[in-house]
Amino acid sequence: MRNHAGARAEDIEWHLLVQLVVETDDRRAAANEIADRLGGTLSVDDVLGTPYVLVGTVEEMAEQLRSHRDRYGFSYITVHEPYLEVFAPVIRRLREQS
């Protein structure tokens, strides 16, 4: 998408709408449950790698977002309302490290 924006790419705010936020100490087990719920359409590694699902401790989720920002250029992040409370500490962590 960035290459289609051409010279304006750096001026565009790139949005990410996170679909699911799961706080856990066992990322792999939680990702496995998510993959099962999705009927096998995504592997565990796909769940852990997609920018649309955050899984892990607050620090791990903050690191996921930093990594996705670096890879894809996201500058604006939104989560669905049911995940606001679990996501708030992640935002605090990102702000502390900025």
| Unreliably modeled segments | none
Strand content: 15-25%
Q: Main sheet, how many strands, which sense, barrel?
A: 2 strands, parallel
Q: How large, in whole angstroms, is the Cα Rg?
A: 14 Å
The separation of the N and C termini measures 26 Å
Strand neighbour order, sheet with most strands = 1-4
The tally of helices reads: 5
GO molecular function: oxidoreductase activity, acting on paired donors, with incorporation or reduction of molecular oxygen
Protein name: Putative Rif11 homolog
Describe it for me?
- One of its GO terms (molecular function) is oxidoreductase activity, acting on paired donors, with incorporation or reduction of molecular oxygen.
- It comes from Rhodococcus wratislaviensis (Tsukamurella wratislaviensis).
- This is Putative Rif11 homolog.
- Helix content is 50%, strand content 16%.
- It is an alpha/beta fold.
- It has one domain.
- The longest helix has 15 residues, at 58-72.
- The two termini are 26 Å apart.
- The mean pLDDT is 92.
